[in-house]
Write a structure and sequence with these properties.
The chain has three helices and 13 strands. It has 259 residues and is α+β, with helices and mostly antiparallel strands. Strands 1, 2, 3, 4, 5, 6, 7, 8, 9, 10, 11, 12 and 13 form a 13-stranded antiparallel β-sheet that branches. Helix 1 (2-17) runs antiparallel to helix 3 (228-258). The protein is globular.
Length: 259
């Protein structure tokens, strides 16, 4: 029975190791089904809500647009553009000339993604947008774990930048460097997780203006449950271990009775 116990333990370990990470959760912001195709500008502080499902697991996200001058934070208009993705028109922009993109020209545009559970954001598709004859897609990511109801907006409008830092600590940020070419790229090599994420044009800017629309993001659901086959293997393993323990106890009792 010791052999069976070892096999069961190995089977449990193997099952856990091979459980899918649910990396297939993709939020496609360029497919505006259920979302009105945006003009270049609109009401500041609007919210857009999306869902993604993979392998029976559904994750929801609320997305909002923001801007900061490095001292204070203000909400902005979050646009959704067919086949292009999400863009931000802040209060100092008209939306013309590419200014309805997420950019760091003059000040820093960013979006906040509030998920209904903790996720690891694995990658994003950046649509490069030309402004002032420049195309670049460098971005900054930040993550946090906020005790904030999913249907509640973060109270950051007209807030001090310190309030932003209280949600997205400076050590929770990382950069993703792109090029003038649109495309998907992996991010978050450390596998960091959070229920709230911010994505901005590179902050601070490195001398070359960045401007893009966010077409999609790919996330892993860190709360994903094992597949049915995995549960079956684990239950079988626990049963074999239990049988092994009972057998050992019976043998021990037999020794005591014949002593």
């Amino acid at each position: 029975m010791k052999v069976f116990a070892k096999i069961a333990a190995f089977g449990i370990a193997a099952a856990i190791a091979t459980t899918p990470a649910h990396a297939g959760l993709v939020f496609d912001f360029g497919n505006t089904a259920g979302q009105a195709h945006s003009g270049l500008d609109g009401p500041n502080g609007n919210i857009r809500t999306y869902s993604a499902t993979d392998n029976g697991q559904t994750v929801n996200v609320r997305v909002s647009g923001w801007n900061t001058d490095g001292t204070s934070v203000q909400n902005a208009f979050l646009g959704a553009y067919q086949n292009a993705g999400l863009g931000v028109t802040n209060r100092n922009e008209t939306g013309n000339g590419g200014s309805h993109a997420i950019d760091n020209i003059g000040s820093i545009d960013f979006i906040i993604l509030q998920f209904d559970q903790a996720v690891s954001l694995n990658g994003a598709f950046f649509n490069a947008i030309s402004q002032n004859g420049i195309r670049d897609t460098d971005a900054t990511f930040a993550f946090g774990n906020a005790a904030l109801a999913f249907n509640s907006a973060p109270g950051l409008h007209n807030a001090n930048i310190a309030d932003f830092d209280s949600i997205f600590a400076t050590n929770s940020r990382f950069n993703s460097f792109g090029s003038s070419v649109s495309g998907f790229r992996s991010v978050n090599a450390a596998g960091s997780t959070g229920n709230i994420w911010a994505i901005s044009a590179l902050a601070p800017a490195n001398g070359l203006s960045d401007s893009f629309k966010l077409r999609s993001v790919s996330v892993s659901n860190v709360a994903a449950v094992p597949e049915p086959a995995t549960w079956a293997m684990m239950i079988l393993g626990f049963g074999l271990i239990g049988g092994s323990i009972r057998s050992v106890r019976r043998k021990q009792k037999g020794v005591l009775l014949t002593a």
